[in-house]
Amino acid sequence: FSSRRRHTRLRTVTGVQTCALPIFWNRALTFEEITALYQPATKPQSINFSTMSGTTYGDTPITLAATSSAGLPVYYTSSDTTVARITGSTLTIVGAGSAVITATQPGDSTTLAATPVSQTLTISKATLTATVANATKVFGNANPAFTVTYAGFKNSETASVLDKEPAVSTTAIATSDAGTYVITTAGGEDNNYSFSYVAGTLTVTKANQSITFTKPVDLQESSGTFILSATSSAGLPVSFESADVTKVSISGSTLSIKGPGSVTVNAVQAGNINYNPAAAVSQDRKSTRLNSSHRT
Which residues fall within 8 angstroms of residue 208, CB to CB, at 6 or more apart? Predict the structure, then answer.
């Protein structure tokens, strides 16, 4: 028949629900035309989504490049936006972990929706190097505060983002002998960083000491002997030396007067593994008495 007829054809618009669109004809329709009006989209399509390689936290964004065999635009979703966030075809790395990235194409009026293609993207932790700075202290003092520096932070981050900063330790204590000790660091934890540790060295130097040489009472040659008295600030034994044994001889801390004249008696302490030698302190014997003075 040739009368004007109104037909309703179902049309699918991408991104919009299926709707009925009226189509008007001014002639008789053929069987094929009538069939086409009610026939759904039958053209198949597929998605080619190349395998993504693993990446690392802090890497630059990835441009996703899946294609549809029908030439239609491909859309993407991420199963975990705390790991990977997608805007358009750009994937931004948010954190270390794994996320399933799915490519879809919903089809159009003539093309069927493609079977989604998914793949797992694994984002490894970035490596953060924690280095302990070398330090020095004097024997007998408490350990100083140790400093850790970091190399490898991403996205302008600092140590404040770490879940747990590494702890620093050494076997040295206040009374440890002078020498060198390893300063280690370990135990750092973070969701986005793994740790590499570089040890430092604590150098314990010898401490200084001083001698206090007690001034003796006046002595006459007839006194014969006298017990010398001197102490070290380190608590180490002090020894004595006579500059002229013909006038004064010393055995241990006992001074023996041999004759009149002037002679110098030195109090010395040579130091040990933890203390430097003390500056010698001298007393000069003049005539029949000893007068106290410090050697310069």
Answer: 275, 276, 278
pTM of the model: 0.73
Q: Alpha carbon 80 to chain centroid distance?
A: 28
Alpha-carbon Rg of the chain, whole angstroms? 46
Which helix (H) or strand (E) segment holds residue 268: the answer is strand 263-268
What tens digit of pLDDT does each residue of 157-183 get? 999 999 999 999 999 999 999 999 999
pLDDT in tens, 125-162: 999 999 999 999 999 999 999 999 999 999 999 999 99
Cβ pair 260, 288 in contact under 8 A: yes
- Burial of residue 55 (CB within 10 Å: 0-12, 13-18, 19+) is middle
Instruction: Tell me how far the alpha carbon of residue 104 is from its chain's centroid.
Output: 42
Specify burial of residue 51 (Cβ count, 10 A radius: 0-12, 13-18, 19+). exposed
